[in-house]
Amino acid sequence: MIDDFVRAVEAILFASDEPLTVEEIEGHAGEGDVKAALEELVSHYDGRGVELVERGKRWHFQTAPDLAHHLRREREEPRRLSRAATETLAIIAYHEPVSRAEIEAIRGVQISKGTLDVLMEAGWVRTGKRRETPGRPLTYLTTAEFLTHFGLESRRDLPGIDDLKAAGLLDPLDEEALQLALDGDEEPAEEVESDEEDA
């Protein structure tokens, strides 16, 4: 029998519009062992149609992965990312925090501000601290929403090329884009100023 505190934690997570940290749950639930309650709920929901998961130190309920195909018709299809956006997202994920000039150095071409805007609007990328270098460029990082969307607990869970090939998830263009992202730190390039900052 689940006790009242565990039920309260369960209700808080169900009612929340977004994943919650342990501290945020404690703020709503009051006195009690939130971590123990979460462990009990994880066990309680194991093997059910929904499951309690932790992604990026935030907790939420999600549909069990093996049942996702039943809900596909109910979900809005996300917009497919352009190749530039896919490469940019991969570079940020594998190298964060990374500046725009560093992204361009890895990709070998300039990126328009619109590419970063698309990733920020999707909630997958955010701005970080400015580098303490001339021009003090902004850096970019992935978000908790990025981890949640891709089912990652942390960035350590990002797959390598061999993992993606084994799963049959890479076509030749995607493989080339990811290889660029993974190899990008071999040769740091100088930051080059561009007149197309907002292009």
Automatic annotation (TrEMBL):
Which keywords does this Swiss-Prot/TrEMBL entry list? Cytoplasm
Pfam families this protein is in?
SMC_ScpB (PF04079)
Gene that encodes the chain:
scpB
Q: What is this protein called?
A: SMC-Scp complex subunit ScpB
| Native source organism of the sequence | Sphingomicrobium clamense
